[in-house]
Every structure is written in structure tokens, then in C-alpha cells.
Amino acid sequence: MVGMAKISDLIPNAETLLNMPPEDVGIIILHHLLSKPRYGEAEKFKQGNFLVSSATPAREYPAQYFDRVNEALAGGWAWLEREGALLPDPNNQDRDWMIISSRGRQMLDPEKLKAFKHAASFPVGKLHPAISPSTFSHFMKGEYDTAVFAALREVEVAVRKAGKFPHSIFGTDLMRQAFKEQTGPLTDPKDVISEQQAIQHLFAGAIGTFKNPSSHRSGVINTPDRAISLVQLADLLLRIIDERDPTRTP
Question: So what's the pLDDT on residue 219?
């Protein structure tokens, strides 16, 4: 853990940290605590020392994020205590001093830490609101297949809702009917036939190539860059649906 003492080294972007659930913030705090030089001291920690305004890692981020980041860190610390990852030091009368338990050490996963580091590149806050925070949560944990599946599932849900299709129609069949040239409810009649067909192929291809395989087997999308590209593709498709949704309010 040498050289990883700062929370901001692990999660450079404040928005990324603010979108992390408490359990993931807690894991980051564990890595941070164990990275600190001990100089022969026992590994013991105090929440007051960690979050005090003059020393809190929240000061590593721009000032406008201070209160929210500190609150997120407090939530992560509380989660660690609740899960038994941090326990009162049995050798100290001051019960505010904590040690990291064996359970807490088992939570330290180097591979998960690598995945957390990629989270800074995820365009959180810039994506279509239908792409739920769970997509980001999956990405941050290195669950790239699941993140892409979740994003493209939102595309399928949006197409079904906008086109008023029953649940019995799904996948590529749903896309082809929704964007069928000339007659599809989400087809733009102003486009020439070749462009109508191209949009139909775009939606069907995205669902058939990237959503369906990732729901049946793992490892289809196995790099963060590829996952981000596909989540951004889902974002584009959702915005096209918004433009063509006949039920939308102008």
C-alpha cells in the first residue's frame, strides 16, 4: 500500500466518491488506513482524528465538495463499524480507538481496488438519467458485463414504454418493430428509408450484440474502456428515444 495514503489518490474525482455507496467508501477507507506509515505504532484509528475538520481527507478535494465528501466518509466509516470491520481496541480504555478486524482485512481485495481506480473515468453525472446509479456501482466494482447489461436494459425498457409494446415482445424483435421503416412508432417519417433502416439496425445491433450476450455469459465485456464506450452508446440510444417518444411533453 506504499504511496496510497490519500483517499484522493484512490478516488481522484469528488463526484465519483459522492456516487459511491457507503460500503464502497468503507473499502476505500480501509485501504487508506492501512497505507499510512505506522512508525512502530499499533494499527489503531480514531474516527475523530480521521474526520476532524483540520485533517479530514475531504480537504483533498475542491472546497465546494467539503461537507458532502466528509458526510460520505462518515457514512463509510459507520458502515465499517456496523459490519465489524472496525472494532474497539480491546487494549485501550478509550473505546473510540478502533482496530481493523480480521473480517475487515478479508474485505481488502487488490482487484477491487484496481476497479475502483477506473471509476474516475466513468462519466457519472453526464449520462441519461434513466441509466441508474446501479450501472455506476457495477462498473466501479469491475462488473463490466453487468454495468453494460443494466444500461442497455434501460434502452429496452424505454423503447417498450415509448412504443407501448407488451412485455411479450423484447430484444431485437422489439427494436425492429419499434423502428420498422415507415410504420414503427419510433420511426421518424422525415428520414429517408435507408436512414430509417439504419436506425433500426443500430438499435437491434446494440441489443443483440452487447445486451443479450452479456446476460447469458460473463467476460463478454472485460475492460473498463470498452464498458464506458458501451454505456455511452446506451446513453445515445436513450436520447434518440426521448426525441422520438410520441408521449413526451415538448
Answer: 57
